[in-house]
Amino acid sequence: MVNLRKNFWPLALGLISSVFFLFIVRYQNRLGFFVALFLWLAVLIFVALKPRPARVERRAILPILLATVLAFVSLGSILEWMILNYFFTGLIGLEVMLLFQSVSGQGDFWRLSQKPYRRIMVLIWSFNVFSFITTIFALSLFFPGIPFWLLTIIGGFIFGFISVMIWRMYFQLRPEQGLAWIFLMAFLMMELIWVMHFLPFGYLVSGFFLTWIWYVLQLLARFHFAATGIVWRRQILFLAINAILFFLILLFFVRWV
Do the beta carbons of residue 133 and residue 155 sit within 8 Å? Predict the structure, then answer.
């Protein structure tokens, strides 16, 4: 009975999230979109902030929870293939369920026994990055009147913010240290966004390659924060494989438009 009660909210919120997402992408109505999004966020925030015993830290998932909802909604709004949105309907429910399950009854969300969940969080954050940056490229295509320099700045700081959120799962960053790395990662990714903007790729491909590059960069930065630093002899093979796959996919699988 205790386990059933503990698992009820994650399962219920996952199902609710799938229903709201399906409604938003299935019925293209402006009023319905904003009402459904507001109700969806309100339910999730209410449950996340509802007073609980000290051992349950649901507030820890609020940033990634809100980012995940907005990422799925933004990506679902620009996709032309409804079958992918049906897939994302199940995926958003699964992710919300895992997010709440990860803190259900746990005393310390980031303790070592939470490694599997922590890796899931990294995957969720990475998908959120892909969704946001893909949406930015789509906006530049669908609404050419929006200054791309503005979208570039927004995209850069999304990369920087999510990078720090990932690093904080592994290390205790001082506020000034975290802020400095946000600006560093944001500046670097803004340069790459601007370059990618001139390449003849679709928005999904551009988002995919930028997310790939960002993931490798934030991973190396995370190793830098470790006590041992970056052990380059261990990373040479990893970087070489990524570089080879990157250019092979770029040359033989990507459609140049």
Answer: yes
The owner of tokens 């949406």 is 135
How many CB atoms are located within 10 Å of the residue 7 CB?
15
Cβ contact 134:206 at 8 Å: yes
* 187/11 Cα distance (integer angstroms): 39
Q: Based on C-alpha coordinates, what's the Rg of the chain?
A: 19
The residue type found at 51 is P
DSSP state of 59: G
Residue 4 predicted with pLDDT over 60: no
Other CB atoms within a 10 A radius of the CB of residue 146 amount to 12
The four Cα atoms 74, 93, 129, 40 give a dihedral, to 10 degrees, of 50
Is residue 185 within 8 Å of 159, Cβ to Cβ?
yes
| Neighbour tally for 183: CB within 10 Å | 12
Exposed / middle / buried, residue 226 (Cβ in 10 Å: 0-12, 13-18, 19+) = exposed
Ranking 5-9, 12-16, 78-82 by mean pLDDT, the lowest is: 5-9
Closest by CA position to 64, among listed 44, 46, 82: 44
34-60 per-residue burial string, b: 16 or more CB within 10 A, e: under 16: eebbeebbeebeebbeeeeeeebebeb
- The rounded distance, in Å, linking the Cα atoms of 159 and 83 is 28
How many other CB atoms sit within 10 Å of the CB of residue 149?
A: 10
Mean pLDDT of 76-87: 87
CA–CA dist 155, 150 (Å, integer): 9
- The model's confidence at residue 127, banded by pLDDT at 50, 70 and 90, is very high
